[in-house]
Automatic annotation (TrEMBL):
Pfam families: PASTA, PBP_dimer, Transpeptidase. The chain crosses the membrane at residues 12-32. This is Stage V sporulation protein D. CDD domains: PASTA (cd06573).
Amino acid sequence: MRASNVTVRRRLFAALIVGTAIFLALAVRLAYVQIWLGPELSDKAEDSWRRDIPVTAKRGEILDRNGAQLAYNISSPTVMAIPAQIQDPEATAAKLAAALDASRETIYKQLTTRASSAYIKPAGRKITQEKAREIRDMKLPGIVVTEDNKRYYPFGSLAAHVLGFTGIDNQGLTGIELKYNRTLTGIGGSISYLADAAGKSMPGSTDEYKKPLDGLNLQLTIDSNIQAIMERELDQAMLKYQPNHVIAIAMDPNNGEILAMGSRPGYEPGNYKAYPVENYNRNLPIWMTYEPGSTFKIITLAAALEEKKVNLTEGFFDPGAIEVAGARLRCWKRGGHGSETFLQVVENSCNPGFVVMGQRLGKEKLFEYIYNFGFGKKTGIDLGGEENGIMFKPSRVGPVELATTSFGQGVSVTPIQQITAVSAAVNGGKLFKPHVAKAWFNPDTGALVDEMKPELVRQVISEATSKQVRETLESVVANGTGRNAFIDGYRVGGKTGTAQKVVNGRYSASEHIVSFIGFAPADDPKVVVYAAVDNPQGIQFGGLVAAPLVKGIMEDTLRYMKVPPRKDQMDRKYVYGDTKIVEVPNLVGMSITDIYESMNMNFQLAKSGTGGTVISQVPKAGTRVEQGSTIRIYLSEASPPGGGKPQAQ
């Protein structure tokens, strides 16, 4: 009996020890969980209970080089649903459908989806402030109007193909909006609340707001004023010539910055769906490939001068065609240009003369320069959709291919390649990578975050050769096929181009792409402008269609840029039908009789006032105007200011 009691006591004692140990272990575990792990577990629990309503970050603005806003955001609220908090989905769907003018069935499906939150779309996305206020006033359980924004392009279609556009979720779809989408987008924020297992808001819980991080503002190299000048001229060309399309690019040749880029037909980024898809899904200045024609001769000229294969004063005879390996390659002028110098070969855009330049260079050397000028591969401009162009494979270049390449036939280039290469030919021989992005700025402080520096690809030709190219191309505008790009008071250089289009694998006799590339001032280029017109109706010569287009862009651009006129401009060669530019004489102090006796008939006279003496005139003396322009003189009996006769001219 005693033994039995001892055993029981031992067992009870052991049980007590074990129980105490378990209790102590549980106490330690509880303390560990509550004191050590408590905050972490509490945070995890709260995270599992917390629901987020996204708040969209403001997309970064896009500015031109002077700070003008080209794309920014406007407030555009969005309706969201928290399905677990909706008490009567059918009634809620009916009210929202009526307010948003949308399908009740579609909204009902979105209200009953198995998700913590859902957009009411498309009708509830990016609504007006008035509509947002109306829906908030309904106080519908489970319906939230959250802050959102949409893209706005204040200048409509200006620079549309460069800017591109965004989708419903503010994501970039084309152009700069797509290229720099990640940096422009920013990081979204949220409004969060605590919800139970059923998704309903917990009593006493407070909302937490996580501020979004807005995207950076992007400054472009584009100048909206030059862009507007360019697009005005593109619109006029479309009306005048009814082409398939027309493109233009303006570049600073000294750093590769694109000052303007455009094409027609165009579109409005804020309403792109209203236009044919081909209007907005391709940026023609970087996408279009075509035979460049005679503008490509600038590359042959630069290579021949650099390699000293041609002397511009050397004589050449053009009979109208040249025989190469059994092929007869004709000059554009029927019967040829006859005896001329190689300078006149360039002025006259004489094909046989350029064939000889190509032959003197040889296949390897000519194509070495073509590739060094950037043809046959993408320039790397920071816009999507750029094409490579097409060059002959060296193994397939025979005498005929060498000859046709030398005057721009049989090869395919893009406009951006063409203007980049010619910029290198006239800027001192430096090939720069073209770009449209200039700098990034903090949207809150305006502080500079990053800046894009000019990127020199390579030195292609020497400064001395580049100077020869500039002077030769200035002579083309003053004396040759580029006369219609001549701007009085400015030294302009350039080259025309007229190329037959390839239609169904053959050269078309009736369809052409005409082009012109010009730069000014010729002694120190500040801007290069390239334009191409696809299949203009009626006139189909680059000198008659594209040269005036470039002149219109360049003349206003030079004045806008405050580039001073040059005193040493090369005199223009006038031909039959040209209107001469003449200087207005000083008529102040003269009598009507004196004027008619001494003044030639370069001008028309219009009189204002009474009396016998001219006291003022418009335009003022020394102004250069077209021959036949009207001078308005103001008459009085009084002596002119300062008195006396006019100064000697």
